[in-house]
Write a structure and sequence with these properties.
Layout (H helix, E strand, L loop, with lengths): L1 E8 L6 H17 L4 E3 L14 H4 L2 H10 L1 H15 L2 E3 L3 E3 L7 E7 L5 E5 L5 H7 L9 E4 L2 E5 L8 H6 L5 E6 L4 H18 L2 E8 L16 E3 L11 E4 L6 E6 L2 H10 L11 H6 L7
Parallel strand pairs: 1-2, 1-10, 2-3, 8-9, 9-10
Antiparallel strand pairs: 1-13, 3-5, 4-5, 5-6, 7-8, 10-11, 11-12
Length: 291
Protein backbone atom coordinates (compact mmCIF):
# COMPACT_ATOMS: atom_id res chain seq x y z
CA UNK A 1 0.00 0.00 0.00
CA UNK A 2 1.00 3.64 -0.29
CA UNK A 3 0.62 5.86 2.78
CA UNK A 4 0.52 9.67 2.78
CA UNK A 5 1.18 11.62 5.97
CA UNK A 6 0.66 15.35 6.31
CA UNK A 7 2.65 18.33 7.42
CA UNK A 8 -0.52 20.38 7.66
CA UNK A 9 -0.81 24.16 8.01
CA UNK A 10 -3.91 25.85 9.39
CA UNK A 11 -5.74 28.58 7.51
CA UNK A 12 -8.03 31.39 8.55
CA UNK A 13 -11.41 30.36 7.18
CA UNK A 14 -14.04 32.85 6.04
CA UNK A 15 -16.58 30.20 5.01
CA UNK A 16 -17.37 26.51 5.35
CA UNK A 17 -16.99 26.17 1.58
CA UNK A 18 -13.37 27.31 1.92
CA UNK A 19 -12.72 24.45 4.36
CA UNK A 20 -14.42 21.94 2.04
CA UNK A 21 -12.28 23.12 -0.88
CA UNK A 22 -9.11 22.89 1.20
CA UNK A 23 -9.77 19.35 2.38
CA UNK A 24 -10.74 18.27 -1.12
CA UNK A 25 -7.46 19.62 -2.51
CA UNK A 26 -5.40 17.82 0.13
CA UNK A 27 -7.20 14.51 -0.26
CA UNK A 28 -7.35 14.60 -4.05
CA UNK A 29 -3.62 15.31 -4.27
CA UNK A 30 -2.67 12.33 -2.09
CA UNK A 31 -5.20 10.02 -3.74
CA UNK A 32 -3.88 11.14 -7.10
CA UNK A 33 -0.47 9.80 -6.06
CA UNK A 34 -2.05 6.43 -5.28
CA UNK A 35 -2.22 6.80 -1.50
CA UNK A 36 -4.63 4.38 0.16
CA UNK A 37 -4.24 5.79 3.70
CA UNK A 38 -4.03 9.51 4.51
CA UNK A 39 -2.99 10.74 7.96
CA UNK A 40 -3.73 14.27 9.20
CA UNK A 41 -2.23 15.69 12.43
CA UNK A 42 -3.36 16.40 15.95
CA UNK A 43 -5.55 19.50 16.46
CA UNK A 44 -5.67 20.22 12.73
CA UNK A 45 -9.39 20.85 13.19
CA UNK A 46 -8.70 23.97 15.26
CA UNK A 47 -8.91 26.08 12.09
CA UNK A 48 -12.66 25.52 12.24
CA UNK A 49 -12.78 27.89 15.23
CA UNK A 50 -11.96 30.79 12.89
CA UNK A 51 -15.42 30.45 11.35
CA UNK A 52 -16.78 32.01 14.56
CA UNK A 53 -14.48 35.03 14.45
CA UNK A 54 -11.35 36.39 16.11
CA UNK A 55 -12.66 36.52 19.68
CA UNK A 56 -13.82 32.90 19.67
CA UNK A 57 -10.74 31.53 17.87
CA UNK A 58 -8.45 33.31 20.34
CA UNK A 59 -10.24 32.09 23.47
CA UNK A 60 -9.21 28.66 24.76
CA UNK A 61 -12.59 27.59 26.10
CA UNK A 62 -14.77 29.12 23.40
CA UNK A 63 -12.59 27.68 20.64
CA UNK A 64 -13.16 24.16 22.01
CA UNK A 65 -16.91 24.48 21.69
CA UNK A 66 -16.73 26.21 18.33
CA UNK A 67 -14.77 23.29 16.89
CA UNK A 68 -16.78 20.61 18.67
CA UNK A 69 -20.03 22.08 17.35
CA UNK A 70 -18.78 21.68 13.77
CA UNK A 71 -17.46 18.15 14.04
CA UNK A 72 -20.65 16.49 12.80
CA UNK A 73 -20.36 18.45 9.55
CA UNK A 74 -16.60 17.76 9.41
CA UNK A 75 -17.26 14.03 9.80
CA UNK A 76 -19.75 14.07 6.96
CA UNK A 77 -17.19 15.85 4.77
CA UNK A 78 -14.47 13.31 5.57
CA UNK A 79 -16.85 10.42 4.94
CA UNK A 80 -17.72 11.85 1.54
CA UNK A 81 -14.06 12.33 0.62
CA UNK A 82 -13.11 8.82 1.74
CA UNK A 83 -15.92 7.42 -0.41
CA UNK A 84 -15.19 9.62 -3.40
CA UNK A 85 -11.45 9.00 -3.46
CA UNK A 86 -11.65 5.40 -2.24
CA UNK A 87 -9.12 5.89 0.55
CA UNK A 88 -8.83 5.58 4.31
CA UNK A 89 -8.45 8.92 6.08
CA UNK A 90 -7.36 9.60 9.64
CA UNK A 91 -8.89 13.03 10.13
CA UNK A 92 -7.14 15.78 12.04
CA UNK A 93 -7.96 15.52 15.73
CA UNK A 94 -10.27 17.95 17.50
CA UNK A 95 -11.43 18.80 21.01
CA UNK A 96 -14.83 17.12 21.21
CA UNK A 97 -17.46 17.60 23.89
CA UNK A 98 -18.96 14.13 24.32
CA UNK A 99 -21.11 14.03 27.43
CA UNK A 100 -21.19 16.07 30.63
CA UNK A 101 -17.46 15.89 31.36
CA UNK A 102 -14.58 17.87 29.90
CA UNK A 103 -13.85 17.57 26.16
CA UNK A 104 -11.57 14.87 24.80
CA UNK A 105 -8.97 15.01 22.04
CA UNK A 106 -10.44 12.79 19.29
CA UNK A 107 -9.26 11.63 15.90
CA UNK A 108 -11.60 9.74 13.56
CA UNK A 109 -10.68 7.06 11.03
CA UNK A 110 -12.81 6.97 7.87
CA UNK A 111 -13.04 3.98 5.54
CA UNK A 112 -13.66 4.02 1.78
CA UNK A 113 -16.92 2.09 2.26
CA UNK A 114 -18.40 4.83 4.44
CA UNK A 115 -17.52 3.32 7.81
CA UNK A 116 -15.90 5.31 10.58
CA UNK A 117 -14.67 5.02 14.16
CA UNK A 118 -12.54 7.18 16.43
CA UNK A 119 -9.62 7.10 18.82
CA UNK A 120 -9.34 9.39 21.85
CA UNK A 121 -6.06 10.56 23.32
CA UNK A 122 -5.13 8.72 26.50
CA UNK A 123 -2.56 10.86 28.31
CA UNK A 124 -2.64 14.64 28.33
CA UNK A 125 0.31 17.00 28.05
CA UNK A 126 0.83 19.72 30.66
CA UNK A 127 -0.82 22.33 28.42
CA UNK A 128 -3.85 20.12 27.91
CA UNK A 129 -4.07 19.43 31.66
CA UNK A 130 -3.16 22.76 33.20
CA UNK A 131 -4.35 25.36 30.69
CA UNK A 132 -6.90 23.81 28.37
CA UNK A 133 -8.44 21.17 30.64
CA UNK A 134 -8.75 18.47 27.98
CA UNK A 135 -9.68 15.08 29.48
CA UNK A 136 -8.52 11.54 28.67
CA UNK A 137 -11.04 9.79 26.45
CA UNK A 138 -12.19 6.28 25.69
CA UNK A 139 -9.98 3.19 25.52
CA UNK A 140 -7.38 2.28 22.94
CA UNK A 141 -8.77 0.55 19.86
CA UNK A 142 -7.34 -1.70 17.18
CA UNK A 143 -8.98 -1.12 13.80
CA UNK A 144 -9.17 -4.19 11.55
CA UNK A 145 -9.14 -2.85 8.00
CA UNK A 146 -8.51 -4.03 4.44
CA UNK A 147 -5.06 -2.43 4.78
CA UNK A 148 -4.21 -4.43 7.91
CA UNK A 149 -4.63 -3.77 11.60
CA UNK A 150 -4.26 -0.10 12.50
CA UNK A 151 -3.75 1.59 15.88
CA UNK A 152 -3.61 5.30 16.73
CA UNK A 153 -1.43 6.93 19.39
CA UNK A 154 -2.16 10.64 19.45
CA UNK A 155 1.03 12.69 19.92
CA UNK A 156 2.09 12.36 23.60
CA UNK A 157 0.59 8.85 23.74
CA UNK A 158 3.36 7.67 21.42
CA UNK A 159 5.91 8.37 24.15
CA UNK A 160 4.53 5.65 26.45
CA UNK A 161 5.68 2.10 25.65
CA UNK A 162 2.86 0.32 27.45
CA UNK A 163 0.29 2.08 25.26
CA UNK A 164 2.28 0.98 22.26
CA UNK A 165 2.51 -2.54 23.61
CA UNK A 166 -1.27 -2.67 23.94
CA UNK A 167 -1.30 -2.21 20.14
CA UNK A 168 1.31 -4.90 19.48
CA UNK A 169 -0.97 -6.62 16.97
CA UNK A 170 -1.12 -3.48 14.81
CA UNK A 171 0.65 -3.51 11.46
CA UNK A 172 0.49 0.29 11.39
CA UNK A 173 0.42 2.75 14.28
CA UNK A 174 -0.64 6.25 13.28
CA UNK A 175 0.80 9.16 15.28
CA UNK A 176 -0.97 12.47 14.61
CA UNK A 177 0.99 15.20 16.41
CA UNK A 178 0.97 18.88 17.32
CA UNK A 179 4.24 20.14 18.81
CA UNK A 180 5.25 23.72 19.44
CA UNK A 181 9.04 23.41 19.52
CA UNK A 182 11.66 21.32 17.74
CA UNK A 183 12.28 19.43 20.98
CA UNK A 184 8.62 18.45 21.12
CA UNK A 185 8.70 17.23 17.54
CA UNK A 186 11.72 15.06 18.31
CA UNK A 187 10.15 13.66 21.48
CA UNK A 188 7.17 12.44 19.47
CA UNK A 189 9.34 11.26 16.59
CA UNK A 190 11.58 9.30 18.95
CA UNK A 191 8.44 7.82 20.52
CA UNK A 192 7.08 6.84 17.11
CA UNK A 193 10.37 5.26 16.09
CA UNK A 194 10.62 3.43 19.40
CA UNK A 195 7.14 1.96 18.99
CA UNK A 196 8.11 0.77 15.49
CA UNK A 197 11.21 -0.89 16.98
CA UNK A 198 9.41 -2.57 19.88
CA UNK A 199 6.40 -3.79 17.92
CA UNK A 200 8.30 -4.44 14.67
CA UNK A 201 5.67 -2.50 12.76
CA UNK A 202 5.37 0.73 10.79
CA UNK A 203 4.52 4.03 12.47
CA UNK A 204 3.18 7.02 10.56
CA UNK A 205 3.66 10.47 12.08
CA UNK A 206 1.79 13.57 10.89
CA UNK A 207 2.55 17.09 12.13
CA UNK A 208 0.88 20.45 12.42
CA UNK A 209 3.14 23.18 10.99
CA UNK A 210 3.16 26.97 10.87
CA UNK A 211 2.27 29.89 13.12
CA UNK A 212 -1.24 31.09 13.91
CA UNK A 213 -1.40 34.35 15.83
CA UNK A 214 -5.17 34.04 16.15
CA UNK A 215 -4.94 31.03 18.49
CA UNK A 216 -3.50 30.51 21.95
CA UNK A 217 -3.76 26.73 21.58
CA UNK A 218 -2.01 26.20 18.23
CA UNK A 219 -0.08 29.44 17.84
CA UNK A 220 3.31 27.89 17.02
CA UNK A 221 3.90 24.49 15.43
CA UNK A 222 7.01 22.59 14.39
CA UNK A 223 7.28 19.31 12.56
CA UNK A 224 6.97 17.29 9.38
CA UNK A 225 5.58 14.00 8.15
CA UNK A 226 7.52 10.82 8.80
CA UNK A 227 7.09 7.09 8.21
CA UNK A 228 9.20 4.68 10.26
CA UNK A 229 9.86 0.97 10.58
CA UNK A 230 12.18 -1.30 12.54
CA UNK A 231 15.82 -0.97 11.42
CA UNK A 232 15.95 -4.62 10.41
CA UNK A 233 15.72 -6.85 7.34
CA UNK A 234 13.35 -5.55 4.71
CA UNK A 235 13.52 -1.99 6.09
CA UNK A 236 16.03 0.88 5.83
CA UNK A 237 19.00 0.61 8.18
CA UNK A 238 17.95 3.96 9.71
CA UNK A 239 14.36 2.85 10.25
CA UNK A 240 13.23 5.88 8.23
CA UNK A 241 11.08 4.93 5.25
CA UNK A 242 10.32 8.55 4.42
CA UNK A 243 10.47 12.02 5.98
CA UNK A 244 9.42 15.43 4.79
CA UNK A 245 11.20 18.78 5.00
CA UNK A 246 10.83 20.41 8.39
CA UNK A 247 7.96 22.93 8.59
CA UNK A 248 7.12 22.65 4.88
CA UNK A 249 3.40 21.94 4.32
CA UNK A 250 2.58 18.97 2.15
CA UNK A 251 2.39 15.20 1.95
CA UNK A 252 5.12 12.66 2.61
CA UNK A 253 4.66 9.27 0.96
CA UNK A 254 5.95 5.75 1.47
CA UNK A 255 5.14 2.34 0.08
CA UNK A 256 4.55 -0.25 2.80
CA UNK A 257 4.65 -4.02 2.29
CA UNK A 258 2.69 -5.92 4.93
CA UNK A 259 4.63 -9.06 4.10
CA UNK A 260 7.83 -7.29 5.18
CA UNK A 261 6.24 -6.61 8.58
CA UNK A 262 5.20 -10.26 8.90
CA UNK A 263 8.67 -11.42 7.87
CA UNK A 264 10.59 -9.23 10.30
CA UNK A 265 8.30 -10.35 13.12
CA UNK A 266 8.96 -14.03 12.47
CA UNK A 267 12.56 -13.99 11.25
CA UNK A 268 14.14 -10.61 11.92
CA UNK A 269 17.74 -10.15 13.03
CA UNK A 270 16.17 -9.40 16.41
CA UNK A 271 12.71 -10.29 17.73
CA UNK A 272 11.87 -7.41 20.08
CA UNK A 273 8.13 -7.99 19.90
CA UNK A 274 8.44 -11.68 20.80
CA UNK A 275 10.92 -11.11 23.62
CA UNK A 276 8.92 -8.37 25.37
CA UNK A 277 7.77 -10.60 28.25
CA UNK A 278 11.35 -11.46 29.17
CA UNK A 279 11.64 -8.00 30.72
CA UNK A 280 9.22 -8.69 33.58
CA UNK A 281 11.27 -11.02 35.80
CA UNK A 282 14.38 -8.90 35.27
CA UNK A 283 12.59 -5.68 36.18
CA UNK A 284 11.08 -7.32 39.28
CA UNK A 285 14.50 -8.47 40.47
CA UNK A 286 16.30 -5.12 40.33
CA UNK A 287 18.46 -4.60 43.42
CA UNK A 288 20.17 -1.52 44.82
CA UNK A 289 23.94 -1.78 44.72
CA UNK A 290 25.95 0.77 46.71
CA UNK A 291 29.44 1.58 45.48
Amino acid sequence: MKVATAAYNLDWLDSWAQYEDKLDRWVSKAAGQGAELLVFPEYGAMELSTLDGVEVAGDLERSIHAVSDRMEAAQALHQRLALEYKTYILGASAPVVDGPDRPVNRSALYAPDGGQDHQDKQIMTRFEREDWDIAPGGPLKLFDTALGKIGVLICYDSEFPLLGRALSEADLILVPSCTEALAGYWRVRIGAMSRALENQCVTVMASLVGDNDWSEAVDKNTGTGGIFGPPDKGFPATGVLAEGALNQPGWTYADIDLSAIAEVRTDGHVLNRTHWEEQSPRVDSVTLSRL
